[in-house]
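Review form for a predicted model. The reviewer records the input and the model, then writes brief findings.
Reviewer: anonymous (R2)
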Amino acid sequence: MFRKLAGAAILGVLFCATAVLADEVKGKVTKVDDSANKITISVDGKDTEYTVASDCKMPKMKGKDGTEKEFTLKALAKMVEKTGGVGVNATTSKKDGKDVVTEIKMSGEGRKKKKDA
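Model under review:
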């Protein structure tokens, strides 16, 4: 019984420590270098460059044929090029002393609302 309780306590501490190490950045992606796995996020007018992890979780998108595909940095670069910036919520964590993006979620920032005709 004590082993189960101790194991659950250790898992709880590890989960909380992981949550503390992760940070969320809300801003607008203004530049993407997909060959170097880097993105630039602007928050309140201040640009910061981040490295994107190779196993970064990306949002799903629907293709023209209706199938879901995972978003890529190349697709993000095209979107930024067309719109001038894309709103994101990026989760970062420290790796080798640098902030690395581990997850990207699209936000409503930067999107234009369609007007009803």
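Findings: Confidence is low (pLDDT under 50) at residues 110-117.
Further findings: Strands lie at 23-33, 38-43, 46-57, 60-62, 68-70, 86-95, 98-106.
Recommendation: see findings above.
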